[in-house]
Specification:
Length: 360
């Protein structure tokens, strides 16, 4: 079984910086990615739009130029969102949008995930004019929808969790107050979030990762497969089914965003770094999750290749790649004398069900 698709867009990925950036960009090019949205949680974070980088902050202008260099100009488009902090203001949004560099802003729950200590609570931007300016200028909001600071059953229970809380308590309020703001609910993991997006207007979309379509918390816990540890956490089977229904529906509001996040050290003495690395292997994993065949190949193409760039107003690729149901193996990614372990290798399943070949 073999299917050919236009090159696709990864509308949520982490590439970091220095030699990790070069290696991870290459792994995205290897998997026939036409364009990327490169998250701004670098060190220091991307919290300004134009100008030179400093020790305190990076700028979209500089980080984007670095990503372009690392990819030898091979991406059709690169979006770098602005990392929202307490210092972001309406004027920056207005000016940024005018410059053409600012297409979206990322909300990360303060201290909620990797390199996210710079964020402010979501209410800050609802009240200080930032969301209004974004709405006015057509700048998209990328939301990591988890309430920070919860614990125990509220953080991760069978009927309640940090994402559930966020989609019940904040997102409806944002949509009500800013009805024209375009929002991408990033890496949704719950039935609550999937239902919310499905029932919202066309200005509300969502990315879904391969790991959340394929796995549940049971897969994480059985044998403590910490390479599957990412935030938001994988959830329960009812949630996975809701995500799968959303992705395979072919509906324009759901699209690929791998959240691929390279970590050279996952498990440490006192915890585990959050983030799954799916460079090189994401379309193959999406195909596996869809159980790709003749009957759903159109929905698959919508989800992987078309819906995302349409939502962001990006051009579609006229180059193609092929997925074939044939086992394929991947080595770990070497970066200097360190290694980044792709999710499936880390889970002890080195062979993928689908293989990918590019035509360029
Ligand atoms: C991401 C990372 O490592 O940068 N980690 C993750 O678990 N997804 C950050 C993020 O998207 O939350
Ligand atoms: Zn992410």
């Amino acid at each position: 079984m073999k299917f050919t698709f236009p090159k696709w867009y990864d509308l949520h990925a982490h590439f970091r910086q220095d030699n990790i950036l070069t290696a991870t960009i290459q792994s995205h090019l290897n998997m026939a990615c036409a364009g990327i949205l490169a998250m701004p949680n670098t060190k220091p974070p991307v919290t300004r739009v134009t100008g030179e980088n400093t020790n305190q902050y990076w700028t979209i202008e500089s980080y984007k130029a670095e990503l372009e260099r690392a990819s030898n100009g091979q991406f059709l488009d690169i979006i770098v969102p602005l990392y929202l902090t307490k210092d972001t203001n309406a004027e920056m949004i207005k000016e940024g949008a005018k410059s053409g560099l600012l297409k979206s802003c990322k909300y990360s729950p303060p201290h909620g995930t990797t390199n996210s200590e710079f964020g402010a609570p979501i209410k800050t931007y609802m009240e200080n004019g930032v969301f209004q300016a974004m709405s006015d200028a057509g700048v998209i909001l990328n939301i990591h929808g988890e309430e920070h600071g919860l614990s125990g059953e509220d953080y991760f229970g069978e009927n309640s969790n940090a994402e559930d809380y966020f989609y019940k308590n904040y997102v409806p309020e944002i949509v009500k107050q800013f009805p024209n703001l375009k929002i991408v609910c990033e890496h949704i993991t719950t039935k609550t979030a999937a239902d919310f997006v499905q029932n919202a207007g066309d200005n509300i979309a969502a990315t879904i990762t391969p790991q959340h379509l394929l796995y549940t918390v049971a897969d994480l816990l059985q044998g403590l497969k910490y390479h599957l540890y990412c935030l938001p956490l994988v959830k329960f089977e009812k949630d996975r089914q809701a995500l799968l229904n959303a992705a395979t529906s072919g509906h324009a509001k759901f699209f690929a965003g791998t959240d691929s996040a390279p970590h050279t050290t996952k498990a440490t003495e006192c915890g585990c770094a959050a983030g799954c690395f799916t460079g090189d292997i994401a379309p193959q994993l999406y195909a596996e999750s869809f159980d790709l065949d003749e009957s759903n190949k159109e929905a698959f193409e919508n989800f992987l290749c078309l819906n995302g760039p349409k939502f962001y107003g990006l051009s579609l690729s006229d180059e193609t790649f092929t997925l074939e149901k044939m086992p394929q193996e991947f080595p770990n990614l070497k970066v200097g004398n360190q290694e980044i372990i792709p999710l499936t290798n880390g889970m002890g399943r080195p062979s993928l069900a689908w293989s990918l070949s590019k035509h360029d």
